[in-house]
Specification:
single chain, alpha+beta, four-stranded antiparallel sheet, three-stranded mixed sheet, globular
């Protein structure tokens, strides 16, 4: 759009090279018609803390992505869904695109879970298409190889599981933050907008079988 200067910055607020994932930001000043504050906020500190303080001189969109050599912007995930694996910033959204491209996968989710050695590692969950009649382990092996081939070994994608359903809100948003909290053994609350709470019970049992320690909701 006219007058929007979109740039990609690293954690130190430095521009990154084309094709490198970082924080999608807009150089200040913002063009006319942009919101000057948050509704119901006292003063502008909440606004500044949410959008302006992370990268001085830029508006932080909260999205992660990259700009290619031709100047096209690719939004890959929310910044909360970018994980740091052994010092490499990786987009779980990019991994989800790779998994979703498999002929047997109906839908999927990838979250970053805590790892003592690498900081975070990706963990995938896939729902298979109706009628698929192949061993789960065979499909999961193909998915791990797809990520390795299309993103590279740096993705460290080695954990994936077949599930019957993904936990979602009634509007269809996958509850990745809740899955991550379950995997890390952190505190979490049952989302008021959850579509089917039984799916989280299934995830808790699955994660327990994989050696994680999910906590009950607060």
């Amino acid at each position: 759009m006219e007058n929007f200067d979109v740039v990609v910055l690293d954690e130190g607020s430095h521009p990154v090279a084309p094709g490198v994932i970082g924080d999608l930001c807009i150089r200040l000043p913002l063009p006319p018609a942009c919101a000057p504050t948050l509704w119901g906020s006292d003063g502008d500190q909440r606004w500044r803390g949410a959008y302006l303080d992370r990268h001085p001189g830029f508006y932080t969109t909260g999205d992660a992505g990259y700009v290619d050599e031709d100047g096209y912007v690719f939004v890959m995930a929310r910044t909360d869904d970018v994980i740091n694996t052994a010092g490499h910033r990786l987009s779980t959204g990019q991994m989800e695109e790779v998994l979703a491209g498999h002929a047997d996968v109906a839908e999927c989710a990838v979250v970053g879970v805590a790892d003592d050695f690498k900081g975070q590692v990706p963990m995938g969950f896939v729902v298979l298409k109706s009628g698929v009649d192949r061993p789960d382990e065979e499909i999961l092996g193909e998915l791990v190889q797809r990520v390795r081939d299309q993103i590279g070994p740096v993705a460290a994608f080695k954990q994936a599981s077949v599930v019957t359903a993904l936990p979602k809100t009634r509007s269809g948003k996958v509850l990745r933050g809740t899955i991550r909290a379950l995997a890390d053994g952190g505190e979490w609350r049952m989302p008021a907008t959850i579509e089917d709470a039984a799916v989280l019970d299934d995830f808790s049992r699955l994660l327990s079988s994989l050696g994680h320690s999910p906590q009950p909701p607060l």
